[in-house]
Each structure stands twice: as structure tokens, then as C-alpha cells.
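Shipment paperwork, digital attachment
Item: protein structure file
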Amino acid sequence: MSRHQTQPVPGRRAFLGLLVLAAGVAVAVLAATSLFGDNDGMAVDVDAGKALAQANCAGCHAIGQSGDSANPAAPPFRTLKTKWPVENLEEALAEGIVVGHETVEMPEFEFDPEQIGDFIAYLKTL
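Attachment content:
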């Protein structure tokens, strides 16, 4: 009786290594998405975000699809996403956004996580 011993095929080993690597990358991407994605899975309310913008920002900024800002130095919200990813505002809004617009200081605002999610969701609609 002869016994045949199977030897690993180099191509198969490389394929399995790539498969494991791809699975690891997929897990890392999914983990990053859940950590840094849209509001960590919280539901957002675009209307609440618009109301927040109206109450806190419309005195200086144009907050809609059209119109000029009341303060010419304050950028219209519809232009923000053309300059920066609006998600980048999350940390500033959580810690208290403070910005100077040439001759006028912007009031300091600090929003809770739910408000931030709503506000960012509204900005994305513009």
C-alpha cells in the first residue's frame, strides 16, 4: 500500500493568505465605519437640524438653498460642503465652535451628539 502525502500547493497558500488579509481589511473598514460613520448609528432628524440652524445661525448665515447671508463675512451654509467635508464639523460642534468672520466674532455654540447629527444631516441636504 502506498500512501500519498499531499503537499500544500504554493498558489493555494498564497490565495488563502490573501483571503485572510482581505477579510482583515474588511473587518477594519466595517469597524471604522461603525466608529466614525454617520452619528454612530443614531437616527437623524433633518427638520430638527434645520430648526437648529434657524435658531442659532440664521442671524448671520444664509441657511437655505438660496439667498445671501445677513453678515456678508458669514458663508452661506450651502457652500460649506464645497469647501470641506461637513462631517469635519462634528468635533468642533461638540467642543464648542468658535470662529471669527473678519469683523464679527461668531458666538460660541456647543451641541449634544443628537443635535450634531441632525445639524450635519441638514447641511448635507443643501
